[in-house]
Specification:
Strand content: 5-15%
Number of strands: 3
Radius of gyration: 21 Å
Distance between the termini: 66 Å
Order of helices and strands: HHEEEHH
Shape: elongated
Strand order of the largest sheet: 1-2-3
Number of helices: 4
Largest sheet: 3 strands, antiparallel
Structural class: alpha+beta
């Protein structure tokens, strides 16, 4: 069988929560104004409903950890000031395929 990986807790959790604000907002749907909030990711075939957004965030963190972890990796990469910003192919000094054409268009 497949082992279930538990979401981390503690100080890292708080740091991660701030990185994931928009992710949590996207996956929390206000079903009834100030009363019911729904998780947009299905869990065991249904979309769970909660009384407050913070419960949806907790649910996402605890029950959808693989999806949250993937988003954390992406956010960590994008927030790293040393992450590569150019593709190795086609960038300045890089190899780019010939664009063809050669002649002038519109004649």
């Amino acid at each position: 069988g497949e082992e279930k990986e538990d979401a981390p807790a503690g100080p890292a959790h708080e740091r991660h929560k701030t990185m994931l604000v928009s992710f949590f907002s996207i996956h929390c749907f206000e079903k009834e104004r100030d009363m019911k909030y729904q998780c947009e990711l299905p869990f065991k075939g249904t979309n769970k409903v909660f009384k407050a957004p913070e419960f949806v965030y907790k649910h996402l963190w605890n029950k959808h950890w693989p999806v949250v972890k993937q988003e954390l990796y992406l956010m960590s990469f994008l927030m790293d000031p040393l992450h590569p910003t150019e593709t190795p192919l086609g960038g300045p000094g890089g190899w780019a395929p010939h664009q063809g054409g050669g002649g002038q268009m519109g004649r």
